[in-house]
Amino acid sequence: MPLIVKPTPAHPEPPAHKIMPAFATRFGPKLAGEVAATDRLVRVNALTALCDALSDPEQAHGCADAGVVETLNAHVSGGQDAPTRVLAAKALCGCARDARAARAMVDAATPAAIQGACLNDAEQDVRMHCYDALIRLGGGPRRGASSIVAAGYPKALVEKAEKESVGLQPRALDLLTSCLGNEQGLAEALDAGGIATCLSLLGSMEAAVRAAAGRCLAGLCFDMSAKDAAVEADAVDTLCALLEDPDLGARRAACAALVSVTTTDEGKRRMVPAEPRPRDAVAAIIALLAEPDAYLTTTACKLVANVAVHPKVRAQLREDKECLPAIDALIAGPGTDQDALVAQHARIAKDAVLWEP
Amino acid sequence: MANSAYTHTTSPKPLLSKMKKTTYRAEDEENIITNNIMFDRRVVRGNTYAAQVVTHNTQREVERMRYESERTLRRDATCQRKERLAKPSTPPPAEGRAHIKAQTDTFLEELSDRPVESEAVTQTEAILDRPPSPLFIPSKTGVDKETDIPGGDLFDFDIEVKPILEVLVGKTLRVSMMEVMEEAELDAIQRRQMEFEQMRNAELVEVQRLDAEASRRFAEKQRRFTQETDRLRQQAELGQKVAARAFARSYLANLSELAFDQLEDSGHFVDPVEKEIQDSFIPWLFDSVVETTNNHISSSSCVDALIVDAIELASNLQSDVIKQIKQKERARVFAVEDAQEIKEAEGTAK
């Protein structure tokens, strides 16, 4: 029996909350429009799709050109619902990964727009994504760090770092560290008492916080006045104790900070305390020379070169049975590029130890 | 052909084109023009599983329902038209006014928006009991063709889906793996960038160390230069001091004595006895001496005057004597004897 077949009806219009990607150049504008939707379900689904799409540079470029960054700024700082804020902050983090989207963030003054959300939002995830976005932005385009500093982050971060939850303290400190490459940021952080904050956080129970605080202190001590302030605040003793931290990152940060602090003569003098320490700092430095990490051994060699200027420390280094053999072992490394750098600094350290007036 | 997935008993041929000829039987099948079946209206496109199959009875029933509803509407419209024509119409309102519906009955009743309901009765028409008309089958057109479809030649989902599913799953996994690897690479790049940043900062600190070392050496050099300059200056000062001391020593060798002398001269060391002697005794002594001397001089002058007077007197006396002697000499000459006496007289006189 013949069949009468009705023609297939046209596809029904998909529901608005079902995000259908557009093709090619329409992708960005369509998704940007959906991200700016007033309907919460549409907005959240569009933000979820945007977070996935930003891993593609072409789509990230299209979205940035469509003005999605301004919309995300408004969502993060506009007091929307929590999922919208979290996903918008996550999308901003994705934007900061892409160079063009990061430039769009700078042009849209994202650091200033999301400052309130970054520091004071009730949702920890929002703050975490904002910190990640700004850290990547600060390490990306040159204007990124400048825009973060211009938004007044250094002072706010110094005040916020101790009050922030432990899980986000490393991010807050890393963001502060990224601001220190800018002279204005460095000056503002020092004026706000960054040295005291970092020294306080060096005693944290969390290893990541100690490492981040050490890195931040090392960055702060680029300034000569900061070195003196750190020495006055007994940073040398604190950092010497941290040289034996079980966490590698904390040891690396402490060693780098000590290298920076002991550049001054007063810092070298503080290496020889009036009262003996529970564990000798020089022995801890010598122990670092045998570490497998190349960066740590390099900074340890720099530290030896710094502190060997002090006659008592130099005599102690020279009399130690392990110091010079360890330095010789570094000089006679396998011959890789990294080892060449280590060997170069090991030679400098050896010359400093064997120097005689 | 043996390696292909499908085999055909009758090889596929294109259908005839309607543009060429629409005859029932193509007499010349060799000159047919091929046509794209995608644009042939006889070919049903789309998913055959989702297509709605409508039987002839169903279609007839639908047509009957439509006919019934149209007839009911027509009857209702006719009734309304008749009612409208039966009542006289209200004259139009005056200018600026409008008609308003109002109840004029003695007893008011509640008005509502409920539509007017009316009951209608119908009866199944006799035509529906009639068996359906036979389906009209148009005369056959086109060309009949035959083909043989052996078992396994048609699409078998379970078999055919495997390669497609393999591709889909493989592609999805590959894309997922690519995304994971890309994220891992980005993380590695970021980690490397951070390490590079730390190493760069360490090198900047090394620059500061070298700068501090150079400053320290420069300061040490300046300190030693200043120290040597001071040493030379102090040595020169020492030589000058030694020379000055020698000169001073030689200069001051007699200074005390001279000073004492000068001081003594200036009267800084005063002896009261000596001062009394000098101030009182010596002047008194000098005055006394002067007085005494003056007295002595005056006495001497007196004596001298007396002596002169005496000498003068004596000379006068001598001259008198001499004159007398001469007179006596003359007398002696004149008298020798008398001369002896005169001599004795002279001796006595002496």
Automatic annotation (TrEMBL), chain A:
Domain of life: Eukaryota
Stored Gene3D superfamilies: Leucine-rich Repeat Variant (1.25.10.10)
InterPro entries for the chain: ARM-like, ARM-type_fold, Armadillo, RSP14
SUPFAM superfamilies membership: ARM repeat
Protein name: Armadillo repeat-containing protein 8
From TrEMBL, chain B:
Protein name: Radial spoke protein 3
Subcellular location: Cytoplasm, Cytoskeleton, Flagellum axoneme
Top-level taxon in the UniProt lineage: Eukaryota
Transmembrane parts of this sequence: none
Region Disordered, residue ranges: 67-99, 112-143
InterPro entries reported for this sequence: Radial_spoke_3
Alphabetical UniProt keywords: Cell projection, Cilium, Cytoplasm, Cytoskeleton, Flagellum, Phosphoprotein
Residue ranges with Basic and acidic residues bias: 67-86
A Gene Ontology term for the protein's cellular component: cilium
Family, as annotated: Belongs to the flagellar radial spoke RSP3 family.
